[in-house]
Amino acid sequence: MLYIGIFVTQLEVLLESLSLAPIWAATGGLCMSECIFCRVAAGKIPADKIFEGKEVVAFRDINPQAPHHVLIIPRKHIESVNDLGEDDAALVAKMVLAAKEIAAKLGVAQSGYRLVLNTNRAAGQAVPHIHLHLLGGRNFSWPPG
Ligand code: 5GP
Ligand code: ZN
After folding, report:
1. Domain count, the chain
2. Which residue has its alpha carbon closest to ligand 1 atom 21?
3. Which of 102, 100, 92, 87 shows the shortest CA–CA distance to 131?
4. Pocket (CB within 6 angstroms of ligand 1)
5. Range of the domain at 56
């Protein structure tokens, strides 16, 4: 696995130097090197990870909006809910099931928590790599702001 990782990194560097990164991304995104959450998933940017699966990773939000604020992302680069395909159904289910596990681990499953998928500008999506927010540890109002 180590050798495959080194090969992938070198391939990324080569494609970037040849300005072919978009082609790399279009391959289905083993890693989209300029995407911040792809880089977090790949361990290239430090993050407080609390869950690491084969396809899904979760880490604490850098600017928490609740005592517990976790982002659950797929390793695959998908920009938003709008970009999900039928093939991604199992992946989305894994994100939600990871959220369920994390909520239990953080001790908020019974008290309650909120799962949010901000999509595009009006909803305030700032990072164009799909991420499920898990917020817990306080009461949340409805409707949301
Ligand atoms: P959005 O507004 O796109 O739904 O949420 C993006 C979230 O990502 C924000 O809550 C923001 O604080 C978080 N975020 C942005 N950059 C980083 C980062 O580099 N590391 C971590 N852990 N969280 C980040
Ligand atoms: Zn990405």
Report:
1. 1
2. 62
3. 92
4. 36, 45, 47, 59, 61-63, 71, 118, 124-127
5. 2-136
How do residues 22-68 score in pLDDT, each as one tens digit? Answer: 444 444 444 568 999 999 999 999 999 999 999 999 999 999 999 99
Is 144 contained in some domain?
Answer: no
CA of 110 to the centre of ligand 2 (A): 32
Asked if 54 and 48 count as a contact pair (C-beta separation under 8 A), the reply is: no
For residue 33, the CA-to-ligand 2 centroid distance in Å is 8
The answer to whether residue 33 sits within a structural domain is yes
Question: Degrees (nearest 5) of the Cα angle 20, 1, 59?
Answer: 75
Domain membership of residue 145 (yes or no) is no
Supply the CATH number for residue 68's domain: 3.30.428.10
